[in-house]
Specification:
about 0% helix, 6-stranded mixed sheet, 4-stranded antiparallel sheet, mainly beta
Length: about 110
């Protein structure tokens, strides 16, 4: 199993950028597909982006071209660079394996003001 600790969230104006980090523990990280998920108030948690162990990526349509997922297997860390942020990106962001095999971390809150 992989355990996650997310960080890097905050309050930013529309059009701004943030970089989220997810520090993972557990020997399975380097061979796991990792994903970033988000949950806005009153909505279900949804998948934002995934990255395979070799670095292949996929994105939700709503963030494609604005967000970039990356990973550093030596540091057991996965990142989410978020550019051109919009108010609708406001949510709590979580990382986990894909498919979901581990317990959720505490997440990190991203708030985008208009």
């Amino acid at each position: 199993q992989v355990q996650m600790v997310e960080s890097g969230g905050g309050l930013v104006q529309a059009g701004g950028s943030l970089r989220l980090s997810c520090a993972a523990s557990g020997t399975a990280f380097s061979r796991s597909v990792m994903g970033w998920y988000r949950q806005a108030p009153g909505k279900q948690r949804s998948l934002v982006a995934t990255i395979t162990s070799s670095g292949s990526t996929n994105y939700a349509v709503s963030v494609k071209g604005r967000f970039t997922i990356s990973r550093d297997n030596a540091k057991n860390t996965v990142y989410l660079q978020m550019n051109s942020l919009k108010p609708e990106d406001t949510a709590a962001y979580y990382c986990n394996t894909y498919p979901i095999l581990s317990a959720w971390g505490q997440g990190t809150q991203v708030t985008v003001s208009s």
